[in-house]
């Protein structure tokens, strides 16, 4: 190349460097400013980052029949939902053997079939975690061996795999070696120690597990520094959660509940709820709770739900559209939902609003489906007082573990003074929304960092559906019943169970007006019966009225055995005062107070008012006392002035004789003259102790012994006559 060409090339290179220098000088401030402002926002059309998903599947124990096929089909349906590029969802296989009948009886072939599916190439797209509760024994042990991870409840145990076998075949040994060796969650040697009682298992040099033969060989070669016999010959290994976690360090975690498990697996809590798409043969029913929550609504819904579940319904959809209401009724509904069997799955659908304490009903459901523009929490029909907020907070703390949800957000929806913050766990994508009290009670509280407050001072927290989904408070998005049905493969039109005649009859009885009417008539009839001792028409009417009153109160959830026992005891003491121990009034007064107390308590759900709502109900309860008082007055008037003049009814009671009748009775008694019988003998027709009847001559008269008791049939003689009766003496 010529010298001229070299100079031209150098000139162009120098010009390029100069231009690059100018570009860098110009862009440097812009780059610095962009770094200070943070990363650019996502474009509107940019898809959101994929989130880790989780699902939970209960494996019924013992494993027999078609259980393995059902579980495999459930997992295959979950696999069919995954698109290419989706992250591996965490599938928690829950094995609960807390009942004695669940520990034994798992079939080897069924258990092995399911274990091989879990270790197959098809299931490799799932991250399987076994969560064990109770004593997992028998061939069900193969299932946790086939999982990538084992988490146990503190009270759980694992082992005794050969408990149902009289002898262990080579096929079984090879199967346990194959499954345990594939995952190596537990060493194959330890798995065989759980199966075969003829083996001895040792832990050598802290991390190696060998059988007795291998141990002797290593010991002879001088390769044993430390050793520990884990399983003796003649026994099968049965290891606790503490032994597997702390001593052997073979399982990943020990977890008391799903909230802890979600944190340990670094999965948002709302993604660990049971995915109903994993199950099959669901029989669904829809229940509508629309309007103000009242005790009658809760009673009607819970009765219908209970009947439906007894009829085979195992998927309950609660269509919730409410502004809140009676706090006692809301708590009763929450308690009812939390008490349903595990086989029944509940979903709360919120398409419009669930304000104030009606949101607690959604909290108690296994899953919450919500429309993006719906409202959850906030000001509603009922506002708690300061005392009521404290009671509500303690109640939420108590039910939170059972509901598998944090309680802070739900408390803030009803408590404007409760401050809730966003908490993050550094190094993870996990977030929680907690108040300081709940955050301090976390088992790993020091690992969570408090962030921005999400509540507004003096205002109850209200979330839109979109925010509830973003924060993990709600579980899925649905704007209609059809969307929920489509998501779970259910019919678009879910049946709304109709009330039967018994439920409608209870509702009529539970109405306050009819309850007061039964109470009023019952008091009147009872007092009328007391004026005419014996079981007559008034007594029958009183029994019917009081029976209807207490039955309706019992079915309405405000009366129980305490009220019934108080009422029956009160009536008993009143009867004792009238007919057994008259004179002092203690039994009568005490019995009357017991009756009034029973009736007052039957009108309310508490014994002594402690919250503002209960204080508001006291006037209605005391109104029953007024009803009883006026019932007594009306009964006295009715019995004295109206009943004796009423045709047919005037025969149901006995009035005291008037003056003319009494005078006639006295006249008849004075004209009776028995003096002619003195000295005559006869025979006692009844035992004379001392009074009775005797036949003197041809007359039967009333007689009285002059001292000694005279038996029936003895001969007597009349010694004296006093008025209309004779004094007799035995002739023997």
TrEMBL record:
<feature type="transmembrane region" description="Helical">
    <location>
        <begin position="586"/>
        <end position="608"/>
    </location>
</feature>
<keyword id="KW-1133">Transmembrane helix</keyword>
<protein>
    <submittedName>
        <fullName>Uncharacterized protein</fullName>
    </submittedName>
</protein>
<dbReference type="InterPro" id="IPR002810">
    <property type="entry name" value="NfeD-like_C"/>
</dbReference>
<dbReference type="InterPro" id="IPR052165">
    <property type="entry name" value="Membrane_assoc_protease"/>
</dbReference>
<feature type="domain" description="NfeD-like C-terminal">
    <location>
        <begin position="677"/>
        <end position="729"/>
    </location>
</feature>
<dbReference type="Pfam" id="PF01957">
    <property type="entry name" value="NfeD"/>
</dbReference>
<dbReference type="InterPro" id="IPR012340">
    <property type="entry name" value="NA-bd_OB-fold"/>
</dbReference>
<feature type="domain" description="NfeD integral membrane">
    <location>
        <begin position="514"/>
        <end position="638"/>
    </location>
</feature>
<feature type="transmembrane region" description="Helical">
    <location>
        <begin position="508"/>
        <end position="527"/>
    </location>
</feature>
<keyword id="KW-0812">Transmembrane</keyword>
<dbReference type="InterPro" id="IPR056739">
    <property type="entry name" value="NfeD_membrane"/>
</dbReference>
<feature type="transmembrane region" description="Helical">
    <location>
        <begin position="620"/>
        <end position="639"/>
    </location>
</feature>
<dbReference type="Pfam" id="PF24961">
    <property type="entry name" value="NfeD_membrane"/>
</dbReference>
<keyword id="KW-0472">Membrane</keyword>
<feature type="transmembrane region" description="Helical">
    <location>
        <begin position="560"/>
        <end position="579"/>
    </location>
</feature>
<feature type="transmembrane region" description="Helical">
    <location>
        <begin position="534"/>
        <end position="554"/>
    </location>
</feature>
<dbReference type="InterPro" id="IPR029045">
    <property type="entry name" value="ClpP/crotonase-like_dom_sf"/>
</dbReference>
<dbReference type="GO" id="GO:0005886">
    <property type="term" value="C:plasma membrane"/>
</dbReference>
């Amino acid at each position: 190349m010529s010298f001229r060409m070299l100079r031209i090339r150098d000139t162009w290179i120098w010009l390029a460097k100069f231009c690059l220098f100018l570009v860098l000088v110009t862009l440097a401030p812009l780059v610095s400013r962009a770094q200070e402002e943070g990363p650019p926002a996502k474009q509107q059309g940019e898809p959101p980052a994929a989130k880790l998903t989780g699902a939970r599947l209960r494996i019924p124990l013992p494993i027999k029949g078609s259980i393995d096929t059902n579980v495999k089909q459930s997992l295959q349906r979950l696999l069919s939902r995954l698109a290419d590029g989706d992250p591996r969802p965490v599938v928690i296989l829950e094995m609960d053997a807390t009942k004695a009948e669940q520990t034994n009886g798992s079939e080897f072939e069924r258990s092995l079939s399911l274990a091989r599916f879990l270790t197959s190439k098809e299931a490799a797209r799932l991250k399987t975690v076994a969560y064990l509760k109770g004593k997992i024994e028998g061939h069900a042990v193969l299932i946790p061996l086939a999982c990538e991870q084992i988490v146990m409840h503190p009270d759980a145990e694992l082992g005794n795999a050969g408990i149902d076998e009289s002898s262990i075949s080579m096929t079984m040994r090879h199967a346990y070696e194959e499954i345990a060796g594939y995952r190596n969650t537990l060493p194959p040697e330890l798995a065989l120690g759980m199966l075969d009682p003829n083996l001895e298992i040792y832990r050598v040099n802290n991390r190696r597990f060998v059988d007795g033969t291998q141990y002797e060989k290593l010991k002879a070669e001088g390769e044993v520094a430390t050793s520990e016999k884990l399983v003796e010959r003649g026994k099968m290994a049965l290891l606790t959660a503490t032994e597997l976690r702390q001593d052997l360090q073979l399982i990943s975690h020990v977890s008391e509940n799903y909230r802890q498990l979600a944190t340990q697996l670094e999965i948002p809590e709302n993604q660990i709820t049971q995915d109903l798409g994993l199950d099959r043969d669901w029989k669904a029913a829809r229940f509508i709770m629309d309007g103000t929550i009242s005790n009658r609504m809760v009673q009607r819904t819970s009765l219908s739900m209970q009947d439906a579940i007894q009829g085979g319904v195992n998927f309950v959809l609660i269509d919730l559209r409410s502004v809140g209401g009676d706090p006692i009724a809301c708590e009763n509904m929450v308690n009812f939902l939390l008490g349903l069997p595990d086989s029944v799955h509940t979903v709360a659908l919120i398409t419009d609003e669930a304000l104030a304490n009606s949101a607690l009903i959604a909290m108690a459901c296994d899953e919450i489906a919500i429309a993006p523009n719906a409202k959850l929490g906030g000001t509603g029909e009922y506002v708690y007082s300061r005392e009521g907020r404290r009671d509500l907070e303690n109640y939420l703390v108590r039910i939170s573990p059972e509901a598998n949800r944090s309680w802070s957000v739900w408390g803030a929806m009803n408590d404007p003074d409760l401050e809730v913050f966003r908490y993050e766990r550094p190094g993870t994508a996990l977030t929680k929304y907690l108040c300081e009290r709940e955050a301090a009670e976390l088992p790993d509280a020091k690992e969570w960092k408090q962030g921005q407050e999400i509540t507004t001072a003096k205002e109850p927290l209200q979330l839109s559906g979109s925010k509830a989904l973003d924060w993990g408070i709600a579980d899925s998005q649905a704007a209609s019943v059809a969307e929920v049905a489509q998501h779970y493969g259910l019919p678009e039109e879910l049946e709304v169970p109709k009330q039967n005649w018994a439920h409608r009859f209870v509702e009529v009885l539970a109405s306050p007006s009819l309850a007061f009417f039964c109470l009023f008539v019952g008091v009147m009839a009872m007092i009328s019966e007391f004026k005419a001792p014996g079981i007559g028409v008034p007594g029958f009417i009183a029994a019917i009225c009081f029976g209807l009153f207490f039955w309706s109160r019992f079915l309405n959830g405000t009366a129980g055995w305490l009220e019934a026992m108080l009422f029956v005891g009160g009536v008993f003491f009143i009867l004792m005062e009238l007919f057994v121990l008259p004179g002092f009034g203690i039994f009568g007064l005490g019995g009357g107070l017991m009756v009034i107390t029973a009736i007052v308590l039957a009108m309310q759900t508490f014994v002594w008012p402690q919250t503002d709502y209960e204080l508001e109900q006291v006037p209605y309860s005391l109104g029953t006392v007024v009803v009883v008082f006026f019932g007594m007055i009306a009964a006295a008037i009715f019995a004295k002035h109206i009943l004796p003049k009423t045709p047919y009814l005037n025969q149901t009671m006995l009035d005291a004789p008037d003056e003319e009748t009494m005078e006639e009775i006295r006249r008849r008694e004075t004209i009776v003259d028995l003096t002619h019988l003195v000295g005559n003998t006869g025979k006692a027709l009844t035992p004379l102790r001392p009074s009775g009847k005797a036949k003197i001559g041809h007359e039967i008269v009333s007689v009285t012994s002059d001292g000694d008791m005279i038996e029936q049939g003895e001969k007597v003689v009349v010694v004296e006559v006093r008025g209309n009766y004779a004094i007799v003496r035995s002739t023997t």
